[in-house]
DNA sequence: AGCCAGGCACCGC
DNA sequence: GCGGTGCATGGC
């Protein structure tokens, strides 16, 4: 995607496949702050970025070309042509076509694998607003101070080493609830190499998933989220309550096992299953479909 | 007040 | 292997 440099800002003029609200509010990431309509502060890779958008353009504030190329191009997946993905998915059926049309500004962020692992452990049986608050508390306590905007201080997501010092009592004090031992177990298994993030990220997919679900508190769905949102494994189809509901509502017309939905998605959407999932999830949740 | 949330571990069968 | 239940917390 082409960009232009305007003093301290980087600007994109073609935003047909980029909507900062869709990208952030679609449930894939948790470390952002809405300052105004289509005006967000994002924390990722130990950096703070402000993004604003209007009808003409997207502006990435106060960043350099070097930082933009090395971090944000990748983070926002700007090297990928989403118009092809959307066209392909729209051809499958009218429901997917509607979801893609309504939520066409979604892009799947290339987030950090470790941060995704902990974040989606926290996400289980939880509301997105609460997930975000818990992750913010974790970052404030165990992460590194990375700067401030308008008197608000921001902290990076804790590294494995930083989070490994946390005790169960401390974590419970941050209101992670029953997930406290899960986080500790994730720290242990990643630190001692039983779970190799390099494998999760770039190795054999089945081996990656096998390793992930050895962690207490990581089952099929959390593993799939880590693989999709933290490891660019676009062939996985995380099926949560919302995806289950919309798939039952549109396709199966009855209570359906997750395995059946998963197989259906893989067979139909193939390499694009992860993208399909995200359009469907955001669309369904926004409209409360099937609830 | 009771139900639910981007589920999972644990238990009984 | 499969289905039921409890789980911390907060919002509605």
Helix content: 40-55%
Radius of gyration: 19 Å
Q: Roughly what is the average pLDDT, rounded to an integer?
A: 97
Strand order of the largest sheet: 1-2-6-5-4-3
Describe what this molecule looks like in 3D.
With 291 residues, the chain is α+β, with helices and mostly antiparallel strands. The chain has three domains: 4-77, TATA-Binding Protein; 113-229, Hypothetical protein, domain 2 (Endonuclease III, domain 1), CATH 1.10.340.30; 241-287, Endonuclease Iii, domain 2 (Orthogonal Bundle), CATH 1.10.1670.10. The protein has helices at 20-25, 65-75, 82-90, 94-102, 113-123, 128-142, 160-164, 168-173, 180-191, 197-202, 205-212, 220-229, 241-252, 258-269, 273-287, and strands spanning 4-6, 9-12, 32-36, 39-44, 47-53, 58-61, 145-149, 152-155. The protein has a six-stranded antiparallel sheet. Strands 7-8 form a two-stranded antiparallel ribbon. Helix 3 packs antiparallel against helix 4, helix 4 (94-102) crosses helix 15 (273-287) and helix 5 (113-123) runs antiparallel to helix 12. The longest helix is centred in the middle third of the chain and has 15 residues, at 128-142. The model has no long low-confidence stretch (mean pLDDT 97). The structure holds a DNA duplex (13 and 12 nucleotides).
Topology, element by element:
Elements: E1 4-6, E2 9-12, H1 20-25, E3 32-36, E4 39-44, E5 47-53, E6 58-61, H2 65-75, H3 82-90, H4 94-102, H5 113-123, H6 128-142, E7 145-149, E8 152-155, H7 160-164, H8 168-173, H9 180-191, H10 197-202, H11 205-212, H12 220-229, H13 241-252, H14 258-269, H15 273-287
Helix pairs in contact: 3-4, 4-15, 5-12, 11-12, 13-15, 14-15
The chain binds a DNA duplex (13 and 12 nucleotides) through helix 6, helix 12 and helix 13.
